[in-house]
Amino acid sequence: MTAENVRFETLAVHAAEPRPAHGRSVVFPIYQGTVYEIEPGGGVDYIRYSNTPTQNYLQEKLAALEGAEAAVATASGMAAISTALRSVLGVGDRIIVAGNIYGGTHALLNEESRRSGWGVDFVDADDPAAWAAALTPETKAVYVESITNPLIRVGDLAGLAAFAREHGLTSIIDNTFPTPMLFRPHSIGYDLVCHSATKGLNGHSDLVAGVVTGSAERIEHVRHFLMLFGGSIDPHAAFLLSRGLKTLAIRVKAQGENALALARFLEGHSAIAEVHYPGLESHPDHARALELFSGFGSMLAFRPVGGLEAAERLLKSLQIPYSAASLGGVESLVTRPAISSHVKLTAEERAAAGIADDLIRFSTGIEAAEDLIEDFGRALGE
Ligand SMILES: *Cc1c(COP(=O)(O)O)cnc(C)c1O
């Protein structure tokens, strides 16, 4: 079953499920074993090589969802990203990084630029002239996130993929925020797609995992580095993740509907100064999101009138969302990026990135939109 013959909702449930079912069980079992008998002429199946039955099953499902030839699942999102980068960059190579990126990835690139001699050129994701200016003979790759945190911006993703192709660079994208339900970057030319499966792909805030998808050849290369560095996924986590994937489509749809309803409510509320959600006509990347994505996702950010004090008051009085970092789960979460995801930045760096102290980020769950809106209405009235 592939994206050519069924829709994404059907794919999420049925892709990679063996027919007839394995042992007639509708649910693929957990092969927790680490070691497998060698078939005559066959290779070694070993848990760290990410080629045991439950790992293979998950990887086939993930590849189908991203519309890729192959996938390799990893022990975390950072294992996926660091291994993908290692598979592409050698000592002295350079990478062009477009737009704001996840703090962990930013720290990894900075650290490796000192330790491995990687050259990292941070550029604006909307400025092709800056990409061209950053290009050197050592440049091997471009890196971008499909939706940035916490201002929910969407860069010129198609332009960047075309730029990479034109200059023979490997294009890598972190597609964690939209998930393949809303956006499949391979379809616009990205070579490697990475995810933190800890977030929306699993969606239940109860495991850590990651994935890289791409051509069979590129993924074999990533898998080679994964074998060496050892960030393979545990089969039990693989089982839980494949379980989460089956409800990906309905979860992301419900989250998107809730997020849009809440964003509209907040935008019309006198106690709210600004709202960042690509589904709103007021968002600077609304047109681009409409063109590239089949929905606007679960993430929004906003600032209350009254600054930091009002933000703190609001966080304390909301009753439904947990005050917690992370995202993409069935439960709504609310955080202030200045003290969570972006706490390691200096106040000046945060200001330069447009992250005000009173900016609140909301990861929308699958609760009833009316309840979320009532919770905000009550909390903002206090
Ligand atoms: C969480 C996250 C990561 C890191 O994933 P882990 O599973 O925590 O290792 C990478 N990129 C983005 C966009 C994330 O949100």
TrEMBL record:
It is an enzyme of class 4 (lyase). Belongs to the trans-sulfuration enzymes family. The keyword Translocase does not apply. The modification N6-(pyridoxal phosphate)lysine is found at residue 199. GO terms for molecular function: homocysteine desulfhydrase activity; methionine gamma-lyase activity; pyridoxal phosphate binding. It comes from the Bacteria. InterPro entries: Cys/Met-Metab_PyrdxlP-dep_enz, PyrdxlP-dep_Trfase, PyrdxlP-dep_Trfase_major, PyrdxlP-dep_Trfase_small. Keywords: Pyridoxal phosphate. GO terms for biological process: transsulfuration. This is homocysteine desulfhydrase. Its cofactor is pyridoxal 5'-phosphate. Pfam families: Cys_Met_Meta_PP. GO terms for cellular component: cytoplasm. Its EC number is 4.4.1.2. It catalyses: L-methionine + H2O = methanethiol + 2-oxobutanoate + NH4(+); L-homocysteine + H2O = 2-oxobutanoate + hydrogen sulfide + NH4(+) + H(+).
